[in-house]
Amino acid sequence: MLYTPEGYDVETLAHLLEAGVNVVTTRGEFHHPPLMAPQLRERLEEAAQKGRASLFATGSSPGFITQVLPAALLCLERRFEALTIDEFADIPASTSPQMITEVMGFGGPVPEAFDRRILDHVAVGFAQSLASLASAVGLAVEGVESEGEFARATQPIPLPGGAVIEPGTLAGQRITVTLRSNGGAILRFRANWYCGRHLDRNWELADNGWRVQVAGGRTPGPAHRLSPSRGPPAVGRPDVEPHRPPGGQRRALGVRGAARHPRHRRPAEPPALVRRLRARRGRWYNRRPRKSGQARCFSSIPPPTKHSSPPRRRGLKHCSPPSRRRSPRSTPRPPLHYRMRAEFRVLWREGRLHYAMVPPGERRPAPIDAFPIGAPALVAAMEPLRCALEADPILHRRLHGVEFLTATTGEVLATLIYHRPLDDAWRAAAEVAAARLGLFLIGRSRKQKVVLVRDWVEEQFAVADRLYRYRHYEGLFTQPNAAVNQRMLAWAREAALGAGGDLLELYCGIGNFTAVLAGQFRRMLATEVVKAAVAAAHFNLARNGATNADVVRLSAAEMADALDGVRPFRRLAHLTLGEYAFSTLLVDPPRSGLDPRSRQLATRFERILYISCNPQTLARDLEELAATHRIARLALFDQFPHTPHIECGVLLVRSAQSSR
User: Fold this and answer.
1) pLDDT of residue 186
2) Among 55-59, 315-319, 409-413, 549-553, where is mean pLDDT lowest?
3) Partners of 216 in the β-ladder
4) Structure letter (DSSP) for residue 481
5) SS3 at position 541
6) Strand 341-349, strand 352-357: pairing
7) Is 49 helix (H, G, I), strand (E, B) or coil?
8) Phi and psi torsions of 490, nearest 5°
9) pLDDT tens digits along 249-298
10) What's this model's pTM, rounded to 2 decimal places?
11) How many CB atoms lie within 10 A of CB 49?
């Protein structure tokens, strides 16, 4: 449904989404979820989740002219200092005399100040649109400013219908929406509305249309210009907010082809921003070192060297017989903007509050200036939250650390950890900060947890043309790399195709794999020892329609005892284990791997899906399982680029020569 009213009604939108209607709208209030009002965002998200529908915010301005086109132009710059987008509208050429004089006030006295309601109305859509662009290129937004200016006529300006704007009266208005980043870069949109060009302000007006100017490290030249008659169509933004369709996260801002026209040769050293945007696609295009003295506006992590991969696979080299050895399947890794969780200490240096981390090989934390591996939404929230904490004594008194949790939907949850009890004054200050910053806040101290709105973020993964939705709770384990986790889910589903029978899962967590694999088996039984994770798994399975899956709170050893009939468990009283025909075992153990009891249990299954975060313990377990099973599939998943850690997926099937 196309929803384009002059104003919007939240309940009307919510009813449409709850009814399962996908809504496309030109309203500017829905371009960037982190800047939406929390109550509005939560209401629409709940409705969309209930109806399994999506809300798609699009348009030409804001939309194409403030996102897609600027992103393509930024790829041409080696450095980025400022982006200014001017919209020009010659009012008499595009509207009625009544609108000019009665609504917009042209021809009347010049007001003393701009109406704040008009400024806020214009700022809503354009601020969200520019914030989406800033997030795409890795800029953390410090704040949003909006201001208005007036211009007087310097000579009589005739209007359609015979009216005249007299000299000295109102003949032009300009509204400027500005976003400032922590690195000093500026993104600015200016709406220029005027009746003719005989004004007392030097606004460098142009014909109806838009002008996009980028200030960067290239030789100054003419501004990048787009005219409605010659420019691209207003196709709107290609991502869906707040709910993206399958693959929507990877299509954000549509800049894949920028600066890569086949008729032009690629430069020896792509601009820094090009590397940043291309890195979002999951691979590096340039591995040459940066020339000395070349400016760097955006911090980045050097790409891996050719010697970084072999040590990671050394532990798996002898896991299968030589005759069966084959190269493992691996997935490309995004070198930046992948981390969905982060934990920071808080330090004060020279009167300023800093995020801090412990450098490798050291014991004490040190301040950090940037966090380029963080997800865009996480990075965008860091600096505004830091400024808010620094400015408020109630919020920063005895603050020990900050933990972030975000999701591909753009939601951000921040946990503030204190060495003092949290009182009503803290809650009041935190509620103001959370509402202003557009994120969820939690306060923690010893034996105390204060949740202001909620303690989870909405996550979603597209697997095999289906969208799976999860609640990721604060304090519970979730995969830190959303893009790689989505590939892991797709690989596990592909490995389970055709298995049939029932599946037993150990260490299921919040149901990450359980929800995706439920459709591949007749029944599923999943176990987890953390009580809160079991409750989260129940919710996530119900939400994704996995009605054939049960989750119980048992350890792997207890599950083995239950299957062997060693002793009964009250937590299994509602199930009859004899009704299950287990054919496949799924294990996702901690770094310590499988214990001897679990390895012995695994040998009974026809197929074993082993997800490991430690190649050393995986090699140890596979050495024992090789007596009964052979490796049918092997995949490597780089959850933590530029580190020695690697995630492995292994499918083992029973060997023909082994007996049951």
Assistant:
1) 81
2) 315-319
3) 80
4) B
5) helix
6) antiparallel
7) helix
8) -65, -40
9) 333 322 222 233 333 333 444 444 444 444 443 333 333 333 333 332 32
10) 0.54
11) 17
110, 172, 199, 208, 298 from 163: Cα distances, Å: 18, 16, 18, 22, 53
Element (H, E) at 69: helix 69-74
Distances (CA, A) of 26 to 15, 178, 237, 255, 381: 18, 21, 10, 21, 26
Helices and strands (H, E) in the chain, number of each type: 16, 28
pLDDT of residue 234: 30
105's tokens? 């006030």
Is the model more confident about 160 or about 309? 160
Q: Are strands 440-445 and 647-654 parallel, antiparallel or unpaired?
A: unpaired
Helical pair 376-391 and 424-437, crossing angle rounded to 10 deg: 140
Please check whether residue 171 is in contact with residue 152, taking contact to mean a CB–CB distance below 8 angstroms: yes
CA distance 417 to 442: 9
Could you tell me how far CA 478 lies from the centroid of its own chain?
Answer: 15
- The pLDDT tens digits for 54-94 are 888 888 888 888 888 888 877 777 667 788 999 988 887 66
Q: Are 470 and 457 in contact (CB under 8 A)?
A: no
Give the Å distances, CA to CA, from 230 to 5, 33, 160, 167, 190: 28, 32, 27, 35, 21
- pLDDT tens per residue across span 146-192: 889 999 988 888 877 777 888 999 989 999 998 887 656 688 899 99
* DSSP code string of 151-209: EEBSS-EE-TTS-EE-TTSEEEEEEEEEEEETTS-EEEEEEEEESSS-BSS-----SSE
Q: Which residues are catalytic?
A: 613, 647
Q: Please answer whether residues 148 and 177 qualify as being in contact, where contact means their C-beta atoms are separated by less than 8 angstroms.
A: no
Q: How is residue 157 written in tokens?
A: 């300006």
The Cα–Cα gap between 479 and 492 comes to 15
Q: How distant is the alpha carbon of residue 350 from its chain centre?
A: 33
| 273 and 137 Cβ atoms separated by less than 8 Å | yes
What's the rounded Cα separation, in Å, for the pair 457 and 441? Answer: 11
Task: Judge whether 440 and 452 are in contact, CB under 8 Å.
Answer: yes
Tokens of 344: 């920071």
Contact 482, 461 (CB under 8 A): yes
423 SS3 class: coil
Report which of 400, 406, 38, 434 is spatially closest to residue 442, judged by C-alpha positions.
Answer: 434
Task: Extract the runs of DSSP E, i.e. beta strands, from 564-606.
Answer: 582-587
Report whether 282 contacts 80 (CB < 8 A). no
Compute CA 167 distance to the chain's CA centroid, rounded to the nearest angstrom.
Answer: 52
Q: Is the peptide bond before 245 cis (omega within 30 degrees of 0)?
A: no
Element containing residue 525 per DSSP (H, E): strand 524-527
Distance CA 621, CA 599 (A): 7
- Nearest CA among 394, 388, 399, 418 for reference residue 346: 399
What is the largest distance, in Å, between two alpha-carbon atoms of the chain? 99
Nearest to 373 by CA among 644, 641, 647: 641
Nearest-5° Cα angle at 71, 65 to 75: 140
Beta pairing class for 412-418 and 399-406: antiparallel
Which residues share a beta bridge with 82? 186, 215
